[in-house]
Structures are given as C-alpha cells and as structure tokens.
Amino acid sequence: MTLQRAAAFAPSNIALTKYWGKRDETLNLPLAPSLSVTLAELGSLTVVQPEPELVEDVMILDGQPLDAAGMIKVRRVLDAVRQMAGSQVFAGLQSVNTVASARGLASSASAFAALALSASTAYGLDLDDAALSRLARTGSGSAARSVSGGYVLWQTGERADGYDSYAQTFRDAKHWPLRILVAQVLDGRKKVSSTLGMKQNRDSPLFAPWIELCHRDVRACQQAIDARDMTQLAAVVEGNALAMHATMMSSRPALLYWQPATLAVIHEVRRLRSEGVECCFTIDAGSSVVVLVAEQDARPVAESLGEIHGIEAVLQTRIGQGARLVEAHG
Amino acid sequence: MTLQRAAAFAPSNIALTKYWGKRDETLNLPLAPSLSVTLAELGSLTVVQPEPELVEDVMILDGQPLDAAGMIKVRRVLDAVRQMAGSQVFAGLQSVNTVASARGLASSASAFAALALSASTAYGLDLDDAALSRLARTGSGSAARSVSGGYVLWQTGERADGYDSYAQTFRDAKHWPLRILVAQVLDGRKKVSSTLGMKQNRDSPLFAPWIELCHRDVRACQQAIDARDMTQLAAVVEGNALAMHATMMSSRPALLYWQPATLAVIHEVRRLRSEGVECCFTIDAGSSVVVLVAEQDARPVAESLGEIHGIEAVLQTRIGQGARLVEAHG
Description:
The structure is a homodimer.
Chain A: E1 5-17, E2 22-24, E3 29-30, E4 34-50, E5 58-61, E6 64-65, H1 68-85, E7 91-97, H2 108-122, H3 129-139, E8 151-154, E9 167-171, E10 179-185, H4 194-201, H5 207-226, H6 230-249, H7 260-274, E11 279-282, E12 289-293, H8 298-306, E13 311-318, E14 324-329
Parallel strand pairs in A: 5-7
Antiparallel strand pairs in A: 1-4, 1-14, 2-3, 4-7, 4-8, 5-6, 8-9, 10-12, 10-13, 11-12
C-alpha cells in the first residue's frame, strides 16, 4: 500500500448524555450508550507522516513531545492501522489543539478522532465512519463520537471485541441548529482524569443505578431532539449531567469536579429557563459548564454568564460537521 | 391530673448521618437510622400553659401566630399528650427560637423537642427520654434527636406504630468535645422543605441505594466516634452528606440546595484537612455548611471559613446537653 503524509481535523464533542463507566478498560467499551453534539470549530489538527527510517513512532503535541501515557494510546491506534494496512513502518506525528483542555473542553476526543482519520489515510486505508469511530474509540472512548457531525449516538454494543460499539450521526446539525456556549471555570486543583475517575467511581453504591439511568436517558434525549423540544431536552440533559456528578460525589473519596462558579452557572441557567429562555446546561468531568441555547437567545445568555463571578470567559460555537481530511499528498 | 405552666428549652442537633427518607409520613418514621450531635446553646424555648377557657390551642412563634401547617403538627403532639394525660383542656403556647432557620440551622428539631417536654410537663406527665423522643418525632422527625444530649442515635424501629423508633444518647459530649462551626450561606431562593424534598426524591433511581448506604454509614460513624478518629469520621460524615445531596440532585426536577459558597466551604475544609487540620463538614437540606473541628483548631478554621466569598457569618458552638425544663409552676 502507498504510504503518504495525511492531515485531518476533528472537532470536540459535547455529551448530552454521558459516557461514564467502561465495560472494557483497554478497548474503551462503554457500559451505556451516549449522545453528543459535534462542535463546529474547536478541535484537533493532526498530521501523520509514515517514515521508513524511524525506529519508533514519534509525536509532537502542541510543540512538546507527547508523554509516555499518551504515547501508549497513540501507539494502540497506530498499531491497529498498521495491522489493517499490512505495514510495519513507524510514523512521525504532529498535533495541535485549537482548544486547550484548560478552557473547559477535553482535547482527547478530537485528538484521537483526528488521529484515526489522518493515520488510516496515511497508511492507505479508506475507512468508513463506523470503522473510524471504532478506531478512534481505542484511543479515547469519547473520540468515537467526534468522527461524525451533528447529533451523534454511540451505541454500547454487545461484542467483546467492540466491533459493534461505534458512534454515528442520527440527526444532522441543521435539524436543530442550537448554539453552544462554554462557560469556562478555572480550577487550580490537579484534575482527576476521566479514566481514573471512572475506576474510582465503580465502587459507589449509586453507580449501578446511574448506568441504568443512562440507557433510559438516551432514548428520552433522542425523542427530545427529534421533537426539538427544549423543555424535554433540558430535563434529560441536565438530569443526566447532575446524576453523573451525583454518582461522582458519592464515591469515597468523593470526586468533586465542581467549583463555586460551576454552581452559579447552573442556578443562572435554571433561572433563565424559568423566564422562558430556551437553554440548558451540561457538565463533563470538570468544572466548566456547557450551555445549549436557541439561536435567538445565544447572545443575552452569553452576556449573562460572562458576568458571573469566577467565569473566565464564555466561548461561543455551533453544532458542526465531523472529522475531515485537510491535506493528503501521495 | 394537675395542669401547670411549663417551659422547656431544647437545642438544635446536627445530623452526622442523615435522616432523608420516611417509611411513614404521619408518624415520621425513618427508612434508616441516623446519628447526630446535640448543640449546646442554639435551640428553642417553648412555654405551654393549659387554659380551661380556651376553645382551641393557640401558639405564638417568635411573636407571630403560628401558620396553619405548623399548627397541624403542634396539635398532633398536644393531642397525644392530652390522650396520655386524660385531659381535654386546650393550651396557649409561646415559643422563641434562639437560632433563626435562615442562619443555617433548622428550627423544627429544637422546637418540637421543646414542645414535647414542656407540653408533657404542663399536662402532668413525667415521660422518660425515649417517650419524649417518640413524642417529639411526631411533630418533626429530626426532633426525636434533640431530646438527648451528646452523640445521639435514632434507631429506625420496625413497628408500624413507631413505638421502637426513638433516639438516645450513645456517647456523651465529654467523650469527644468537638467544636461545631456553622458557615452561613444566604440563599434568596424559596427553600424546598425537607418533607417535600424527601417526597420528590423518592422517585430518584439513586434513592434505594442511598437508604442502604445510611444503614452502613451509621455503624461506621459510631465506630469513628468511639475511636475519636477524625479521618474515619470525615470519610463517613462527608460521604453521607455528599451522598444525600447526590440523591437530591439526581431527582427530577433536581433538588439543588447548594450555593457557590457552599462548594467553596467544602473545598476549603478538604484542603485544611489535607494539611493536617482535624475537621470535616456536613450539609443539611440547605446551603449552609456545618463543620466539626477539634477544639485546638476551631479558631483558625472559623477565621478561614469567614474569609470565603458568600459566607455571611460563622457561628461557633459546642456539643451539649439535651432538652431541659427551665420553669414549672403548679
């Protein structure tokens, strides 16, 4: 097969119902399905260049060599690609995140979706979205959802090898063009990673009912999206995020990702909605808050959130397309 | 029997493991046992004067006639007393709270414990602590724990009539003379009452595991108190409070009692403990935070909490005795 330099961009995604609980730690297979929206602009750009003279894979992330823990995951994806391509050539990789993880959005989802597309292209493969999603998932679970655009469903799957656990668009961005606001809360504490957090959380007595809840919430969330019903969407999206954080804070020791400003945004969004503004919030394993809002209300809501004590900035974006090639030379 | 004017003071109590879930709404029978400490100074003073010429019970609370909902509960206690005493005489009542509920401590626990003691004395009864606790419980569940002093256990009981569901001291205040700080957080929102909150919360998928957890936590908390072990106490007291709020926030619509300053205190107490300060927090169905702290660390912790943005004041008190008569004339 032809080896070539390839570059791909993949966007971040925001989970509307969460991925929090693995049935397989290595393959990143989830215990429950999850739903997300793919963002328009914010994400990762990754360039892969297979180089016959390299003796191992080398990756530069945001100008720095990638750490060992990250490199293990990257190699897992590259090894899978090389196996499919029948190649033993190592690669040089460069990746840039257009959103820093400190800004309230995780970078691993977009990073591994961009890697899946760029690496598979560089090694001469032409994978469909389902195959790319499976591949991205082996690097980081939520990356499965950053391959496709719009409203995305990641199905749990049942197989032990993960072949049926991948994400696909079920409604495109135009179906309901909500605006996305990211209310950034700075947190000086050392963050507990999602992988560690999920592990620590398994012992919580609330964990099993949380997983059951996710199965129900995905169905209710799909219905809300189909009907473009913000009241129903808010009930399930906020309820699911609160239940995840409830599950986190009930583990011992407690996983407390929230900061005071996190709660201030929660109360403000609830207050705004009680006044008729079409918006709802969600929170990942961190302290920043993401707000989904109807187009016409985006500006006043952003201004209102920006005035909250402890909010560093409010990013604005839209729902967009999935991972795409930005360059491919033979 | 002789009717007489009687006055009693009863203190507030702070639950170390919470009462959040009823198996009987009228008798206030809990689904799980709970543990508390009785406060030294803060509480309610209630005077009961049986008056043959009254055509119904009349009560003045903090200078105002008691509202209808409160009067129903007061009458429930008075009717039980009159039945035991074989009397049909109504009473005039006056009650003063030395701590307003807006200051972060519920007043119903101390109010109904004071009522149980003053009313039973006024109608000529001489009830032991178990009987007073049962009587107070019919007014407000947590009042069962304000009759006795020190470290108090309220056992669930099994009987449908509640005869075996009452609270008793299991360690006195001298056993471990911790200081109690109340970090007051003002909350302009209309508060959801505990009774309503518990009802709304029953549908949460996390509710059943929460109740199971309480049974385990009570045992672990007793062990921590017996051993005067702050590390173990913190794990169970904070874990129990966080699990209760987790259960609350996972109900739909969510019960969110916390304010930004609530979280700020949580983080500060965890930080202080990580630096070797012997303290832990708990939070009732409200936004204020109660901190238990070793005597020698009380002052610096109070100062540190007082500096937090959104904390109105920090009350300081000790663990003290239970309900007591302050006056009784034939």
